[in-house]
Amino acid sequence: MKDTLAEAVKRYALPFESDADFAPLLEAIGDAKIVLLGEASHGTSEFYKVRAKLSKLLIEQKGFSAIAVEGDWPSAQQVNRFIKGYGKQVLTVHEVLSAFSRWPTWMWANEEIAALINWLQIHNSLKAPEQKVGFYGIDLYSLWESIDEIIRYLTETNPTGADLELAKKAFSCFEPFNGMPEHYAISTAHFSQACIEEVSNLLASIRSHAKHYDDEQESELNLKVNALVAKNAEDYYRAMLQDNAHSWNIRDEHMVEALHEIRNHHGEDTKIIVWEHNTHIGDARATTMQDDGMLNVGQLLREQHKKEEVFAIGFGTHRGTVIAAEKWGLPFDSIDVPPARQHSWEDLLHKAGAYDKLYVFNDTNRDVFSGWVGHRAIGVVYNPEFEAFGNYVPSQIGKRYDAFIYLDQTKALTPIQVKEVVNDI
Length: 425
Description:
Elements: H1 5-11, E1 14-15, H2 23-29, E2 34-37, H3 45-62, E3 66-69, H4 73-84, H5 93-97, H6 111-125, E4 134-137, H7 143-157, H8 162-174, H9 181-187, H10 196-208, H11 219-240, H12 244-266, E5 272-275, H13 278-281, H14 297-304, E6 310-324, E7 333-337, H15 345-351, E8 357-360, E9 372-376, H16 387-390, E10 392-396, H17 397-400, E11 403-410
Helix pairs in contact: 4-6, 7-8, 7-11, 8-10, 9-11, 10-11, 11-12
């Protein structure tokens, strides 16, 4: 007789108390080339620390050479340059992380990430250039910053080139909106073509001239992805006020495109670690997101690659504290996370024993973990009073992930104070 979900939670739980307990997870990852590390919130210390530890093990033991995060490409490039030793400017890790100035800054400007960045810098200092680990942002919110980066680089290196003229045209198109995405989004309701042609031409031209920008500091990759951001962000902001599902899909499709650009640049055998929220890395087909016409990174990568090449790990907690804000753009705070809703995935895990545990889903047990259950998700905006109405995503856990790390009680991460820019996106 098949176990119930509650019985399976008890039967298949693996201890997760020390570094040795990563062993079954590393074995299950096998020769995967893309490992997706989720999080149930953007503000939980333990999620960041465990992902950092696992990332180090994947780098040291399995040859992973890139970390891609749910953050802006230009800001993450400051980190990438820092850990790879590009340029002559001497900065502290806190100064480097201050590049993440877009609200919510705490996602990447925090002490937990600072510790990982310091480790990566030391690790890379002992490696040949082609063996250094990279750090990349694959989100698309940096439309204005990305165009600025393109203009700055081309002005310094190819001031008479056609690509610079195209970049200036794109900048001129977006300049009237003062870096405010919502202003551009509103304008597209009246001017359907808006800036589509300018950013499309810019991306096509940079791709066709890519060999001209090849150097030892990844300038070719930097230009390509910044141009890709400009094109896809324009599409995203145009869709933002019209269709939530469509704009969501544009964003996740962009993140997959950016991942492919990174892997293409470094070679098809490049192994990459992806840090994003569970809602991005857990297969959308195993959630009610699909009912709303939404897809995500985890789904797309599984569809595009062989089964053994992609491995997705979800994260969750029962209670604790988290960094979040009550409304978009407001100052962050440490907010209490109440005990998980009764009969939810996190509630079942807690009732199976109030301790940290690990689950690996395989051909033996995946089906028994594939019943529908509410699975908590906390965003950058969080109000515990309304949690039961919007923070639980019906999911088939065994199909959504390949493994799951449960941390029974967690605490808020430690932000680094930086000057924030707030956009309504």
